């Protein structure tokens, strides 16, 4: 199974890395360290368990640690499709996912046992793996994983990612994350958020050490974790930088080991870059962009200290597409604005059991006289000097008294007044706008003064009538700012 038309298989990459670096540490979880040789054995025992159970789909309900990574790679080795579950997700959501997925095996502790019972699957207890390893280079399968994202209707949508799409992405990881033995890659995002795969495969397919954050304390003070574990590659949403800044820990003594910060999932702001480069001027920052439906990320803007001022328009440019992928701007009033439509080998097969939703978002797009299969992202963007800038989700465009307003434009103006983290939304039944700003570095907040400053930057109808201060904006399971929870908080005040 060494290679396919779409590139080298990710499991083959892992097996090669393990064979080349048997004594290097594959996973350091808390105080425990697992060499590549030991870790490969665990992967093979998981594969053996899945094989013996005749599994095609495996639901993985494990906390961060060596078992979860071994189960993910073991399912790939045995030719299964895996689905990672966030253990923090509410029981009804987890049950709904199990019901939609219909896995043959659910791996994990008590929670997994209950889920297995609810969907008539077999429960696999990590303490009871078969001793004999799965032999050989493994089997392949059409789908690498099915990842559930929250749908707008509140029902989780299962995004089906082909193995060839994941292989394409893991190939890119080899080129741009370029981890090698000696690299220490933090594992911060929940495994049910696809950007966790950047850490997992970026490290384990290339001989580096994966270092999960094991405690709430580390998650709350990530800069201390980075310093203690001498992390060389950090990957997360930019929200984590805001957290580090709030803790007053964006400092060289905490961050000096990091050679690369890879961001994805949310707009990266100039304030984030200023804070990182002030602390560690030699480091490299990636701003990557992508939806789950296009396998994690499909663009990359590489940023260095002193060379980014012209790459910020509200937020930092998302940069050019990675090799093999293309971004098209569709439906704008000129060719340099529109909805981002993605084409290329990383597109998902669609949504599990939902052909109508699949047909709505995955549609043909005309490119240079040819029709290609596109994924319509719902993200509005602009192109300036050949660089693409994410503006806003299309569903955030609002009309206030007849004026079309992109709330991001107002957010950018508020950021310009020294409040980097802000959510803007319609208020009073679309009669006006409101905003919530996050406390910034102990700064005094005066809403009428802020509104006065905005008068000079925005049309009067675009100045939020009500602005409130919050200590910390609500974040969702994936550490992204949670817009809906912010609005609920505002309305409850
Ligand atoms: P998810 O499927 O949860 O990864 O969310 C994908 C969405 O996150 C995209 O459609 C964008 O709206 C947003 N997103 C991802 N990366 C970026 C980025 N670098 N800048 C701005 N927004 C982003």
UniProtKB/TrEMBL annotation:
Domain of life of the organism encoding this protein: Bacteria
InterPro entries, alphabetized: AMP-bd_C_sf, AMP-binding, AMP-binding_CS, AMP-dep_synth/lig_dom, ANL_N_sf
SUPFAM superfamilies: Acetyl-CoA synthetase-like (SSF56801)
Alphabetical list of Gene3D superfamilies matching this protein: 3.30.300.30, N-terminal domain of ligase-like
AMP-dependent synthetase/ligase domain segment(s): 16-352
Name of one Pfam family that matches: AMP-binding
PANTHER family linked: FATTY ACID SYNTHASE, NONRIBOSOMAL PEPTIDE SYNTHETASE
Protein name: Amino acid adenylation domain-containing protein
Taxonomic classification: Bacteria, Pseudomonadati, Pseudomonadota, Alphaproteobacteria, Sphingomonadales
């Amino acid at each position: 199974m060494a290679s396919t038309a779409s590139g080298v298989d990710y499991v083959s990459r892992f097996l090669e890395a393990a064979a080349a670096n048997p004594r290097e540490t594959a996973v350091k979880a808390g105080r425990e360290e697992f060499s590549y040789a030991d870790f490969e054995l665990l992967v093979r025992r998981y594969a053996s368990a899945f094989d013996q159970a005749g599994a095609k789909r495996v639901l993985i309900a494990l906390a961060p640690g060596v078992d979860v990574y071994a189960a993910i790679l073991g399912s790939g080795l045995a030719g299964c499709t895996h689905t990672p579950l966030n253990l923090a997700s509410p029981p009804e959501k987890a049950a709904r996912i199990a019901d939609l997925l219909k896995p043959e095996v659910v791996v994990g502790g008590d929670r997994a046992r209950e889920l297995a019972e609810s969907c008539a699957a077999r429960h696999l207890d990590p303490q009871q793996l078969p001793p004999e390893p799965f032999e050989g280079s493994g089997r392949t399968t059409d789908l690498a994983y099915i990842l559930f994202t929250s749908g707008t209707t509140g029902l989780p949508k299962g995004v089906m990612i082909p193995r060839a799409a994941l292989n394409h992405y893991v190939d890119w990881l080899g080129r741009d994350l370029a981890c090698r033995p000696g690299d220490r890659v933090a594992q911060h995002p929940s495994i049910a958020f696809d950007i966790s795969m950047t850490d997992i495969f970026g490290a384990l397919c290339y001989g580096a050490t994966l270092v999960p954050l094991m405690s709430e304390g580390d998650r709350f003070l990530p800069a201390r974790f980075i310093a203690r574990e001498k992390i060389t590659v950090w990957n997360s949403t930019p929200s984590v930088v805001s957290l580090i800044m709030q803790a007053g820990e964006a400092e060289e003594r905490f961050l000096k080991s990091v050679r690369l910060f890879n961001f994805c999932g949310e707009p990266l702001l100039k304030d984030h870059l200023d804070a990182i480069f002030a602390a560690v001027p030699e480091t490299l920052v990636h701003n990557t962009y992508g939806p789950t439906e296009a396998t994690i990320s499909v663009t990359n803007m590489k940023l260095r200290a002193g060379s980014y001022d012209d790459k910020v328009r509200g937020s930092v440019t998302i940069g050019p597409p990675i090799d093999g992928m293309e971004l098209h701007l569709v439906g704008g009033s000129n060719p340099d604005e529109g909805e981002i439509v993605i084409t290329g080998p990383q597109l998902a097969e669609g949504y599990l059991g939902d052909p109508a939703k699949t047909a709505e978002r995955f549609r043909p797009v005309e490119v240079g006289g040819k029709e290609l299969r596109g994924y319509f992202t719902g993200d509005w963007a602009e192109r300036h000097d050949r660089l693409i800038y994410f503006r806003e989700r299309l569903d955030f465009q609002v009309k206030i008294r007849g004026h079309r307003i992109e709330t991001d434009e107002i957010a950018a103006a508020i950021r310009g007044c020294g409040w980097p983290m802000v959510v803007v939304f319609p208020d009073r039944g679309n009669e006006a706008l409101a905003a919530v700003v996050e406390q910034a570095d102990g700064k005094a907040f005066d809403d009428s003064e802020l509104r006065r400053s905005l008068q000079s930057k925005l049309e009067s109808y675009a100045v939020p009538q009500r602005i409130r201060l919050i200590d910390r904006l609500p974040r969702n399971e994936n550490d992204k700012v949670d817009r809906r929870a912010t609005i609920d908080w505002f309305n409850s005040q």
